[in-house]
Model the fold of this input.
Amino acid sequence: MAANNRRMSGKKGAQVGSGGQRRRGLEGKGPTPPAEMRKGHKKNRVATSKAKQTARRPAPKGRGGKSTSELVVGRNPVVEALREGVPATMLYVQQFIDNDERVREALQLVGERGGIHLMEAPRPELDRMTNGLNHQGLVLQIPPYEYAHPEDLAAAAYDAGQDPLIVALDGVTDPRNLGAVVRSVSAFGGHGVVVPERRAAGMTAGAWKTSAGAAARTPVARAANLTRALEAYKKAGIIVVGLAADGELEIGDLEALGGPVAIVVGSEGKGLSRLVGETCDFRVRIPMPGGAESLNAGVAAGVVLYEAARRRA
Done:
């Protein structure tokens, strides 16, 4: 019996611990990355092939021309652009990226939207693409914006049996102002926005975000020469109205706002350029009893568009 007790009570001494390796091995490693990012997976090979084909394929040209592609760089800007529905063709993700909630949200948004390719790239390649900017492992490629032609805006309105309501921007260089104008045009039933080709804001990711989705349904046209585009509008029976601090009329006194009209808004500092101002049929001012000298383009356009919509109603 004693022998049996000795055999059963024999205990080994203290054992060396695993240092937490076993416990860490049982911990979760986060969500499984999308198939497009898993090397060796069929979807990864397909996505990489499509990405290379997209990079080689030239963008189609419209009557109004096209802008160049744009890169949104950094985790917060990329996530914000995806949240706002900014069009995108490719999300570049750095290999062996330090995964956090912003990276996971970006991948989730890309998966939900569809049509955006995922491509892993080594850090040196992303550094080269972004000219050394702090991309934080995420780079979103925005496709070239397909601009309409100024004449298309008026033609679409007439085809719909409506009087054209168009806003033209003269010397406005802040994309956020352009986005705000696009949003106001959409809100008040306008038919589009015209911008010059040179020295003017274009439809960048910033403009898309400020438009709050309105850029998807409100066309933006680009004019090689804004003065000639306005003269063509006049020949088509459209009244050209320029906003100016020294305008002869107040907007509330201009009956023409109830008919076919193109409203021209200048920059906050310089206002309308000389040639554009001379092309306008009327120069009107916005009454500001508070004493402000000027309004930014987005606010000024919204005020006049409201008056035009009120008269049309």
Summary: The chain has two domains: 70-142, 150-312.
